């Protein structure tokens, strides 16, 4: 099922979150993607934010990736997970930025970029391994080890 023209525009503004979620998925990769990115940042429904992130990040558009990186700090854990999975699915292209973000954070604030690295394939795994030894924060090193399937308490 697809949405056409004005109907898609109206549905992005629907009072029904499920309808908005379908509409933002449809908008990704079209001239309406900016509206999907607005929804990814500010829709009151976590399901809509997650749908907008997943579909928009999949396009690989630089502005969508930026919104995805910001969503790693979303207050809702399901939105953070959607952002991490979608960014990680981009693979090696996002690993340097995720590594940089993870190095700049500690503890639970590093969980988003570390989780995204876990989804980013071999390059993400290599970055996690490096962070599991070199991150300046012990809790963050432990989380990186845990995401690699290693003992988080091992030194």
Describe this structure in words.
By secondary structure, the protein is mostly helical. Helix content is 68%, strand content 0%. The chain is built from 10 helices and no strands. The longest helix is centred in the last third of the chain and has 14 residues, at 121-134. The protein is elongated and about 55 Å long. The relative contact order is 0.09.
Principal-axes geometry comes out as elongated
Residues in helix, %: 55-70%
Main sheet, how many strands, which sense, barrel?
A: none
Coarse structural class: mainly alpha
Question: Can you count the helices?
Answer: 10
Our estimate of the beta-strand percent is: under 5%
> What's the end-to-end separation, in Å?
52 Å
How large is the radius of gyration? 17 Å
Unreliably modeled segments: none
- The ordered string of helix (H) and strand (E) elements is HHHHHHHHHH
Keywords:
155 residues; mainly alpha; 10 helices; elongated
Quick overview of this protein structure:
This protein has 155 residues and is mainly α.
Layout: helices, strands, pairs:
Elements lengths: L4 H8 L4 H11 L5 H10 L3 H13 L3 H10 L5 H13 L5 H9 L7 H8 L2 H14 L3 H10 L8
Helix pairs in contact: 1-2, 2-3, 2-4, 3-4, 4-5, 4-6, 5-6, 6-8, 7-8, 7-9, 8-9, 8-10, 9-10
